[in-house]
Amino acid sequence: xxxxxxxxxxxxxxxxxxxxxxxxxxxxxxxxxxxxxxxxxxxxxxxxxxxxxxxxxxxxxxxxxxxxxxxxxxxxxxxxxxxxxxxxxxxxxxxxxxxxxxxxxxxxxxxxxxxxxxxxxxxxxxxxxxxxxxxxxxxxxxxxxxxxxxxxxxxxxxxxxxxxxxxxxxxxxxxxxxxxxxxxxxxxx
Length: 189
What we know:
With 189 residues, the protein is an alpha/beta fold. The protein has helices spanning 16-19, 29-41, 58-70, 91-96, 111-116, 123-135, 154-166, 183-188; strands spanning 4-6, 24-26, 46-48, 76-81, 99-107, 140-147, 171-176. Helix 7 links the parallel strand 6 (140-147) and strand 7. The relative contact order is 0.14.
């Protein structure tokens, strides 16, 4: 289920800012809760929000959580978001509203590589977000990582593997960065 589209961050490996021109738009919280209610009535027990960045607008998240609780829905849900989100204080409300999974795009355990990818996040923010999600009662906290980034050394890769092993993640995935020909790849990488 998609509740919003787009992401305003400039990560150089991602095509979302190109397709959405850095804009983010979202369905209303009421509309999202209505669809969750409909899906639950149809017998669904869980749904995954495929939003590019669910954690962008705290008031909307709060309204979705409140709507789920007010409607007494039991459908479980999961999201993807950035570790530098200002909505981390809502992790407890999300868990109470049956958010079971939070997936973070961590990408690297090397600050040099994060900066090269223009992630605009720090390793400290990574650790804080993962710990906050677990502490709030989110059942599954997942980390996405990439290897094979431009200028990445063996030491950088080992720092990524080390970070993945030390964070209190329940699951993680490693993807190989693939650079495709095109106007953006040469300019930003």
